[in-house]
C-alpha cells in the first residue's frame, strides 16, 4: 500500500473535478458544482492563480485532494491558510489519507510562518468534526459564515 501526498499539477485537473463532484454528492449538493476544467486550471495554475492543491494518491491513483488559499488576519498580522475543500473517496477512508493531507497543510502553514490554519465543516458532518477535534482543531462556535452570491452579489455591487 503506497500513499503519496503531492502538489497538484495541471494534469490533475480532471481528477480534481471528479473529486469535487464526489464531495458535492457527499454534501447532498450534486448540482452545485459549476467549475469546469478551464476554470479550475486558471484558479490553480494560471498566471493569476489564487489557489493551491494537494493530491492524495493510493497505489498511484488519485483518491483525495485538498484545495487551499492564503487569507490574512489583521489581528495576528500574518497570512493564514484557509482549506476550501478536502475530500477522500469513501473506499480510501481509514488509510490515514485525510490526516496526511491535513498534516501536509499544517507543515506548509508552519514553513510559511502562517498565523493560523482554518476551514469550515458542515454541522451535520459528525464524523469529520470528531476527526478534526482529535487532531487539535477547535470549533469556532461563536462565528457564523456569511455569504453574498448570485443575484444578491450583483445587486450589492450595483448600489
Task: Please tag this protein with its features.
5 helices; Aminopeptidase; 5 strands; 159 residues; single chain; alpha+beta; globular
Structure description:
This protein is α+β, with helices and mostly antiparallel strands and 159 residues long. The protein has one domain: Gcn5-related N-acetyltransferase (GNAT) (Aminopeptidase). The chain is 35% helix and 25% strand. The chain has helices spanning 13-26, 37-45, 97-111, 126-134, 150-157; strands at residues 3-7, 52-58, 61-73, 78-88, 117-119. The chain has a 5-stranded mixed beta sheet, sandwiched between helices. Helix 3 (97-111) links the parallel strand 4 (78-88) and strand 5 (117-119).
* Estimated radius of gyration: 16 Å
Order of helices and strands: EHHEEEHEHH
Spatial strand order of the main sheet: 1-2-3-4-5
Derived structural class: alpha+beta
- What is the count of helical runs? 5
Tell me the CATH architecture: 3-Layer(aba) Sandwich
Number of strands: 5
Give a quick rundown of the structure:
This protein is 35% helix and 25% strand. It has helices at residues 13-26, 37-45, 97-111, 126-134, 150-157; strands at residues 3-7, 52-58, 61-73, 78-88, 117-119. The longest helix has 15 residues, at 97-111.
Topology record:
Layout: E1 3-7, H1 13-26, H2 37-45, E2 52-58, E3 61-73, E4 78-88, H3 97-111, E5 117-119, H4 126-134, H5 150-157
Parallel strand pairs: 4-5
Antiparallel strand pairs: 1-2, 2-3, 3-4
